[in-house]
Amino acid sequence: MTRATANGRSALSARSVSQLLLNLLGLCCVLLLICLTSLTLVDVVGRYWFNAPLRGAFEITQLLLCALVFAALPLTTQAKEHVEVDLIYGMVPPVMQGVMRFTSAAVSTIVLGVLAWRLAHHAEQLAEDGTITNALNIPFAPLAWFAAVCALLSGLYALQHLLTALRRGY
Hints:
The protein is mainly alpha-helical. The protein has four helices and two strands, in the order E-E-H-H-H-H.
């Protein structure tokens, strides 16, 4: 997990830092799913059995779902588990398959980089405007920053896939 440096101290390798981030995001996804499930259970029971719905449940659900989607994005990108349509992939020669993998990784890197940039810009605007939710007054900016960081991390994983494709000759 660690490697020794020249002066005897240990430092985390890039691979172990990456694995730590993935583990933390995986844990985050699990906790978000537990929160979403618990929130829905409490809201439904309160609404139908006690005629007392949970105040702000809809807002919290929206925020939790947004966090879940963006927390899972780097995990999905790193594992190459995005939905792919490979209608012609198996019918083309291996060289063309390499070109297709390279093109896919390049487009993914660019799109995720632009998404991260735009989300960061939007997060700045939300913070400057002090934008909050209607019922519970929860600020949107921290969630937007979280989304921007996750999109950036996904872009870095896509870049890693792109560099791997280049090293293998596409």
